[in-house]
Amino acid sequence: KLSVSSDTIQHGVEGLTYLLAESSKLMISELDFQESISALGFSEELNNLLLQLYSDNRKEIRAILSELAPELPSYHNLEWRLDVQLASRSLRQQVRPSVTMKLHLTQHGDRDTRVLQTDPATLLHLAQQLERALDEMKTSHCGRVVRNIK
């Protein structure tokens, strides 16, 4: 009926879905949404229809997006123990330290326990990498990325 290919229709629907989902995710105002779609070169009537569609369905789209987001386990508690093997039958002068951690996680109200064991050097390296990641999050570039993701 429209005299266009199915690929064109599919791309149009995907583009409209992306526009509405991203706009709802970022909770942009109606004025910002109108400025964004005016750059697309549509007619004034179509711009007003898109604005009306966005303002009518913004909350429902956000609710659907929040249901689709994966819920990751969250930290509840951590128990740890330092073990040191001082000697064995074959080696009398041996020192092998290890750190055993019992990580308690919560997901959907259920508790889960994970036991991890590592040597202190690997644990120190992991802590340094996490500290670097935290420092990286403080940069202005990461701040812009995080704001755009939310």
TrEMBL record:
<dbReference type="Pfam" id="PF07258">
    <property type="entry name" value="COMM_domain"/>
</dbReference>
<protein>
    <submittedName>
        <fullName>COMM domain containing 2</fullName>
    </submittedName>
</protein>
<dbReference type="InterPro" id="IPR037354">
    <property type="entry name" value="Commd2"/>
</dbReference>
<dbReference type="InterPro" id="IPR017920">
    <property type="entry name" value="COMM"/>
</dbReference>
<feature type="domain" description="COMM">
    <location>
        <begin position="74"/>
        <end position="141"/>
    </location>
</feature>
